[in-house]
Amino acid sequence: MRAEIMTAGNQTFQKQANLSLVLRRIREHGMISRVELSRILGLKKSTVTNIIAELMDRGIVEQRKEGEASSMGGRKPVYLGIRPGIAGILGLEIELGFYRAVYLDLSGNRLWSGYAEVPPLPLEHMFDYIIQHIQKDIEATGVPPAGIGVAVPGSVDLEQGKIIESVTFKLNDFDFAGKISSRYSIPVFLENDTNCGAWGELWRRNDEKVNFLYLLIRFHFHNLEKTEKPGVGLGLVINGQVYYGSSFRAGELGSNLWDEEGTEYLHMSSEELLRIKEDPRLMEKFLEALFRKLSESFSILDPSEVFLAGDVDEYRDSIPRVLERLKDDSWFGNPRQREKISFSKGGEMEMPFGAACMVLERLYSIPQLGSSRGRIHIDWEHVFEIPETGASHMLGTV
Amino acid sequence: MRAEIMTAGNQTFQKQANLSLVLRRIREHGMISRVELSRILGLKKSTVTNIIAELMDRGIVEQRKEGEASSMGGRKPVYLGIRPGIAGILGLEIELGFYRAVYLDLSGNRLWSGYAEVPPLPLEHMFDYIIQHIQKDIEATGVPPAGIGVAVPGSVDLEQGKIIESVTFKLNDFDFAGKISSRYSIPVFLENDTNCGAWGELWRRNDEKVNFLYLLIRFHFHNLEKTEKPGVGLGLVINGQVYYGSSFRAGELGSNLWDEEGTEYLHMSSEELLRIKEDPRLMEKFLEALFRKLSESFSILDPSEVFLAGDVDEYRDSIPRVLERLKDDSWFGNPRQREKISFSKGGEMEMPFGAACMVLERLYSIPQLGSSRGRIHIDWEHVFEIPETGASHMLGTV
């Protein structure tokens, strides 16, 4: 990780750029030959051959199998893939009272996953507790970790690793990275939970220019009676990038979902909200009001897809009835737009999966000219340096 | 203009990239020395010296003046600037019944501007008519044109040079570029008028990562009685780029500003809309309703600035009263957000200025790895090739 302005004449840039381009295409295609890489990337065959030689030497890329010789004869193409087991990325979702975790290899395959309750501790100690708790499981995979992504509810300054505000954890301007980083030997990246969901979809979509919206709806049924209120967040993916806005608050809905006294949400009382789980008509009322609120923004953002995620997933049957009630709406009433709505495929492990995908996407990101890669980038150099001492050393000194 | 995938190992890429980086920094700084360029870009001094030598040879860059020698002694730095008069960009706004035009040099300085009425013709013939009409004025500047940007009301597929839909011109899926390009020897770029306004602000802001919104409000007072209805458009600039959405319709407000019968706009009758010009209370009512409609989107987009433009410019005094009425709104009622609202500085030549800036921004854009530059890019190679035969030959064969 370094903050260096990238220029084309800069040797670091050229090397990193070609490496990233080659690795990204291999990961996109799963398996691909040197000839195809050279054709797709417009690089000379000798350049590709040299890069692949280095990547094989480093143990990142391996030969998979030989293809068919072309009808013209000649050598059979050899297909290349990312070697499983070279390194893993841990994705964590930390919520009030529990965590979810997944451990992915560099192709995004799940090596392990887990869920457990966590005692009420300050956030950084919850993090330490979780890492200690899962250390043995990570070690058992035999794959050394190269990075950790952490999903938390609240607005997050990704570059500084700070929580700007989290109602759930009652935190403001909280320097998570500062408290954590000195004690861990691998990079830890913090991200808002809704955005993690968007990163997960982005990884699955694998499209560098896509525009989509990720609508996370959570009723917090487990502790609505206590302190939690329903939460709605929107993740914005614009030109293949998660969009953060000017103050890392993009996707936050206006606070006027709650009325001034904080007793009504989208014109529904706390009592009604509590009964949403049992009464599908209340769920439909809630979704109709929410969608009407979002209609203008959807129109303005012109997404190619809208993913619904969170607790709403259990109420899929309600959606057609809700859309029927929205027939008069300029966005939701338009069949061409309605077709764009689908449910996220992530399931309940979506947040930790997305947190890990955020780190993977950054690893496979293509360096851009004239911009600083900043703290939120993770270089392949870092993966290269992972010692062959197994998983146990990598999670730091806790 | 070529559609070539950019890779770092690609020689075209490296040359274009360094050229673009150097020219962009010179234009940003107005004047800058080789030493500063080398420091800012992280390029070797010899690389910068070679690039500057070529650019001076081509007549694009010139030496301006010598700076002070540093306290350490040594050679005085020589400041470089873009040479005025090497080439110009024409920006046109074509509306029903009139056009506005500006002619800018490559630093964005205005060389000429004009306005005139145009007879009702098919759009491509209006374009020919305007070019014929202003040809002498362009020639008189002595600066040969290198490109034309055209602002039109309606949704535009920038890459194809097509009008997707224009209510004003009653056009659908109209291949403007196809009808025009064979007859003009310099590239012509079509763009939506609101987005042109955003391009103008982007040029003035000169910030590669800025996020802002450009809200264009037009009452079409001159022909409201006939066919035109008030028009509101939003230009979105995200990470320093105009955002188009998945179907070039980003920034389009839901059609529900008009009621189902098309007789009321934001709950105001056609009669009220006609009287807006005379009655400031109606203007305030209109703006309050519009801002309430946009509040949720502004919250979701988290812009650093919001520019108001168009006819609303004449009613600046109304804004404080409108904001007072919006005290209860979650976005407009927040003093931190209200501070972000200001009036566009473009004035009535904003649209043609922005249309020219769109072409300039593309000329100064930095090529990005792994992406095709596509039809909407304009290369410096094109500027280099402008023959020294003056302005007259460049506008084509009309």
UniProtKB/TrEMBL annotation, chains A, B:
Signal peptide (UniProt feature, chain positions): none
Organism name: Salinispira pacifica
Gene3D superfamilies (UniProt xref): 3.30.420.40, Winged helix-like DNA-binding domain superfamily/Winged helix DNA-binding domain
Gene Ontology molecular function: any one: DNA-binding transcription factor activity
Entry's family note: Belongs to the ROK (NagC/XylR) family.
Identification of the protein by name: Putative ROK-family transcriptional regulator
Residues in HTH marR-type domain copies: 21-65
InterPro entries the UniProt entry points to: ArsR-like_HTH (IPR011991), ATPase_NBD (IPR043129), HTH_MarR-typ (IPR000835), ROK (IPR000600), WH-like_DNA-bd_sf (IPR036388), WH_DNA-bd_sf (IPR036390)
